[in-house]
Amino acid sequence: MSKIFHTLERQHVSFYTLDSLKILANRFGRHLVSYGSYHLFTTEPKSPHLFRLCLSSKISRLVNRFNQRPSLLEPDLQFVTRTKNDEA
Predict the structure, then answer these.
(1) If I label 82, which of 13, 44, 62, 76 is the partner at 20 to 30 A Cα–Cα?
(2) What is the distance in angstroms between the CA of the first residue and the CA of the last residue of the chain?
């Protein structure tokens, strides 16, 4: 069904088959839309064609141009560093 790998930082990475993802969607009352290695769980059915279009690099560049958000890399790093220091 899946393989779970652990990293040194206690993070989990899982690899699921498409059949496993369908079972999970069904179990939790969600809809699954997949395209290649991208998967989306939704509460309402979504168009697979629209999902594929959203993954297009040309479309994503266009959307990103109009919907720019600040990077979270630095705040996330500070949070993780602070949390790790608090645990020590």
Answers:
(1) 13
(2) 36
- Is the dihedral angle over the CA atoms 22, 28, 30, 36 positive or is it negative? negative
φ/ψ of 63, rounded to 5, equals -65, -45
Q: How far is it, in rounded angstroms, from Cα 12 to Cα 4?
A: 7
Residues in Cβ contact with 42 at an 8 Å cutoff, skipping those fewer than 6 apart = 30, 31, 32, 33
Contact status, residue 40 vs residue 33, Cβ threshold 8 Å:
yes
Give me the phi and psi of 33, to 5 degrees please: -120, 130
Is the pLDDT at 24 greater than 90? The verdict is: yes
What is the overall mean pLDDT for the chain? 83
